[in-house]
Amino acid sequence: MTPAKDDLWFLPLGGTGEIGMNLNLYGHDGCWLMVDCGITFSAPGIAGPNNISRVQMPDPEFIAGRAGQLCALLITHAHEDHVGAVADLWPRLRCPVYCTAFCASILRRKLAEAGLLETVPVHVVMPDTSARYGVFDVQWLGVTHSTPQSQGLFIQTPVGNVFHTGDWKLDDNPVVGHNINTNQLRGIGQQNVLAMVCDSTNALVPGRSVSEGALYPNLYAHIAAARGRVVVGCFGSNIARVQTLAAVARAAGRYPALLGRSLHNYYQAAVAANIWDPDLTLIQSSHLGYLPPDEVLAIATGSQGEPRTALRKLVADSHPDLTLQAGDMLLLSSRVIPGNEVVVEGLIAQFEQKGLQVVCDDDSRRPIHASGHPASDELADMYRWIKPQIAIPVHGEVPHMQANAQVAKAACVPKQMLGTNGDLFMLAPQPGIRRAAARVGRLARR
Ligand SMILES: [Zn+2]
Ligand SMILES: [Zn+2]
User: Fold this and answer.
1) What pTM did the predictor assign?
2) pLDDT over 60 (residue 221)
3) Cβ atoms < 10 Å from Cβ of 77
4) Where are any strands of DSSP class E within 60-204?
5) Residue 338: pLDDT band with limits 50, 70, 90
6) Are 235 and 303 in contact (CB under 8 A)?
7) 140 CA from centroid of ligand 2 (Å)
8) Pick from 196, 182, 165: which is nearest to 35 by CA?
9) How does residue 54 score in pLDDT terms, banded at 50, 70 and 90?
10) CA 147 to ligand 1 center in whole angstroms
11) Nearest-angstrom CA–CA distance, 404 and 202
């Protein structure tokens, strides 16, 4: 199964029909281009909170068996479901890897841990630049999302052009970086886009996503009113959120510190990529214990209730840097990933038993979390700007992808193609789907 000169194919091996472990292939003229190579976690809730969640990734057999035809791996952004499996799977792919500086910093740490730093060729791409990979001309396009330097890809071939959105949202005030350049997107919409391959995560959510910049006053209100220590659980990859919290801490007379490995890793990547605002200083977490309670702001990993994370240690009184007491506050500036509800509820109950006030996100009134994915009105905007002939919803379970297809239809996209991992989406010369064309499956990390 090799694409001919007249063919343009899209073949997802992971992340279509599910949320997590994205691995996408584009095929044209004897050549394959891979977009993203991520992991997923088996839900920690299934066997209780002490179960170690297993890392899983797509079985790359289809492309590993023709790795000589694979011209490059492009990574859209630094989230685990897009970059997390590179160190595991690269030995079977052996192609050059391209990503932005922030993502490269995250990836290089993973490669170093796997002993592959000197082996894997990682090339840093400047956001909003163009390059040719094999037979594909690709324009990288900055998009707003919940981690810095996220990119969409405009993939051009002589037989058709595809806009691969990556994960995105629209945000006038993203705190880090800039909103999507809508003029640039309208310009792409003038270039006869055959297909748009699009994030479906929040397609069932009406309206628009909350702006990252809208969270500051709400977080400030909670933190300024607190009398004891404040701990905020959030995703380590969300540098904008960490910066907002550091700014809130300064305004509220508290000292911010990071607790947990992934927060430190992403913070260091942000510093290395010159993304971190140098005016916002953090203190060493080892100093937290010496501060009066009303000067403490700890930003902690583990908002999904994962084992061995900072929040787990804090609730068990086993964190080396900080001990919590009755009267302290926990803010969860995150959403609960579906499947983790029971575990997170258990964690909250444990904090409440210790006498902490726990505040979760309340989307309706004063949100303390903003999603990084487009709600339905944002999807409609994007379809109207890009004007594709075909909408291909990905990055979602079936109901999310169906909702995305509905939005596309309402926005006058002539054709919607719904499929799942392993289906071959033939875009040119004639649109059509060959079901189960490639073998797919999951591998567990060894
Ligand atoms: Zn993402
Ligand atoms: Zn994602």
Assistant:
1) 0.96
2) yes
3) 28
4) 70-74, 97-99, 122-124, 130-133, 136-142, 151-157, 160-164, 193-199
5) confident
6) yes
7) 17
8) 165
9) confident
10) 7
11) 9
Q: Average pLDDT, stretch 107-120?
A: 98
User: pLDDT tens-digit profile of 295-315?
Assistant: 999 999 999 999 999 999 999
Contact assessment for residue 409 and residue 379, using Cβ atoms and an 8 Å cutoff: no
- 89 C-alpha to center of ligand 1: Å? 20
Are 122 and 107 a contacting pair, CB within 8 Å?
A: yes
pLDDT confidence band for 446 (50 / 70 / 90): confident
Domains in the chain, start-ordered, CATH in brackets? 8-207+372-444 (3.60.15.10), 212-359 (3.40.50.10710)
Distance CA 233, CA 143 (A): 25
CA angle 212, 217, 219 (to 5 degrees): 80
Distance 395 CA to ligand 2 centre (A): 7
Q: Give the number of the ligand closest to the Cα of residue 79.
A: 1
Sign of CA dihedral 86, 87, 88, 94: positive
Q: What is the pLDDT of residues 230-278, one digit of tens each?
A: 999 999 999 999 999 999 999 999 999 999 999 999 999 999 999 999 9
From the CA of 324, how far away is ligand 1's center (Å)? 32
**Which ligand is nearest the CA of 372, by number?**
1
